Amino acid sequence: MSVETSYASDDGSEFWAGARLGLPIIVAVAPFAALFGALAIQNGFTEFQVVLMSATVFAGASQMVGLELFGQTIAPWLVVFSIFAVNFRHILYSAAVGRRMGGWTAWQKAVGFFFLVDPQYAESERRGESGRSVGFAWYLGMALPVYVFWVFNSWLGARFGALIPDPHALGIDFLLPIYFLGLVVGFRKRPLWLPVVLISAVVSIVAYTVIGSPWHISVGALAGVVLAAAMPPSPQARADYDDPPPDQSGQGV
Amino acid sequence: MSEITWIILASAVLTYLTRCGGHLVLSRFSRIHPRVEAGLNAVPTAVLTALVAPAAYTAGPAEALALVAAGLIGLRGGMMSVFFGGAAVLIAGRHFFG
Fold first, then answer.
1. Nearest CA to A223 among B32, B34, B47?
2. In this complex, do A57 and B8 lie within 8 Å of one another by their Cβ atoms?
3. More confident residue, A118 or A142
4. Between chains, do B86 and A181 touch, taking CB under 8 Å as contact?
5. Are A186 and B74 within 8 A, CB to CB?
6. The pLDDT of residue A177
7. Are A107 and A224 found together in one domain?
8. Which controlled-vocabulary keywords does the entry list (chain A) (predicted)?
9. Helical residues (DSSP H) of B1-98, grouped into ranges
């Protein structure tokens, strides 16, 4: 098949085109990878566990959430559930990007979805919307360097984090709430952002004082999600539902 | 294996499921109801707010100042400036308030 042969010769350049997009992301997340490693060591992780988590979970914000909860006496399944909750947004990424994986084999999809982090999703959507194909070589070209450096920088942070003499004076124990607040503020362009923040904040504080930790997280988060679902949908969302955008994959799973 | 290792492995499996699950499950429906989508969209904001709010509520003056600074910086700058700005205010605050 002629498509196959022209495919192979382009794979190299496609890979490097993807890798170039990954470079600024590697730089931007490096401090957070190192911070994760350092905080994990302070929270009782071994270096092996730091590398294991970065290599298998590969999701910055949720890894930090896990750390925050490890520091308290919380049932293990609740820690897992909280990490799952933070990563639940990937369901939407997966549904959206899956439509663009037209020529991919099942194995390529299985590998590709493992690397579907926020910037990978954003760049794939951007490439797809500009009319270019989201190929496996391009996708991995972006994903692999980001992944390798994420794991390596976590390990570096773990190695040097153990040397920090006075974590309290350096504010290490309160860096996570600052980080989480930064993420929340970064989401402010999303629909219903302010109502969701207000209700989740109030309900989680009330739950924290009335029921106690860690239930305030689930209860507070649920309040925000229910509010978002209960509000009337925007006209745009309504229109997309009544007249869905075309599926580019041309095949099922 | 230790408890932490088990938690990591379970989290890894569930995280992978969220990354392929949207394609496997949602692609079977041609459409996602707007209310479901709005709810899913709100999940990260809601979870992270529920983590921050009680920490802010029970915080001392240095921690509260750091959060206010981080929030204000976040309106203008990126994640990196939020993080280092907030940390700088926190370190200074702890130096003065103890």
1. B47
2. yes
3. A142
4. yes
5. yes
6. 87
7. no
8. Cell membrane, Membrane, Transmembrane, Transmembrane helix, Transport
9. 3-21, 34-57, 61-76, 79-97
**Rounded to a whole number, what is the largest CA-CA distance in chain A?**
67
Q: Residue A133: which domain range?
A: 2-186
The set of residues, in sequence order, having a beta carbon less than 8 Å from that of A246 and lying 6+ positions away, is none
Looking at chain B from residue 37 to 76, which residues have their Cβ under 8 Å from any Cβ of chain A?
A: 37-59, 63, 66-67, 70-71, 74-75
Contact state of A58 with B67 under an 8 Å Cβ cutoff? no
Please indicate, yes or no, whether residues A235 and A113 belong to a single structural domain of this protein: no
| Number of domains composing chain A | 2
Domain boundary among A138, A154, A186: A186
Q: Do A229 and B39 touch (CB under 8 A)?
A: yes
Predicted confidence band at A246 (pLDDT cuts at 50, 70, 90)?
low
Chain B (10-39) residues lying within 8 Å, Cβ to Cβ, of chain A: 10-12, 14-16, 18-27, 30-39
Using CA atoms, how far apart are residues A194 and A190, in angstroms rounded to an integer? 9
Instruction: Measure the CA angle with vertex B61, ends B57 and B66; round to 5°.
Output: 85
Q: Answer yes or no: do A90 and A153 share one domain.
A: yes
pLDDT given at position B19: 94
Q: Measure in Å the smallest separation between the Cα of A11 and chain B Cα atoms.
A: 24
pLDDT tens string A21-50? 888 888 888 888 998 999 999 888 999 999
Indicate whether A220 and A143 sit together in one domain.
no
